[in-house]
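Dear colleague,

Thank you for sharing your sequence with our group. We've completed the structure prediction you requested, and as agreed, I am returning the results in plain text so they can be pasted directly into your records. Please verify that the sequence below matches your submission; if there's any discrepancy, let me know and we will rerun it promptly.
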Amino acid sequence: MATAGADLVALALWLLGRFWPGAANQPDNAWLFLPLLALFTASISGLVCLILTPVVYRLRRVPLPPAITAFAVVVSCLPWGMLVALMLSK
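Please find the predicted structure tokens below.
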């Protein structure tokens, strides 16, 4: 949930900084730094989730439903895809 929340915050702050009038003209604008900080937070928590997913499957007696596992893996990989898209867009 932390990864999904940080992804949404990163997207909202990026859109706000992108479409706010005059936001891109300021060189030291924090609006341009905050989405990257939220994306960094999402990528770290997503990496932790990806590492712990196999551990949870080994330790639980009853495995998680596949839909929950698939959602967790997709949300955990999403910030890494966003980082790659940002690097390719520059």
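Summary note from our side: The chain has a mean pLDDT of 83.

Kind regards,
the structure core
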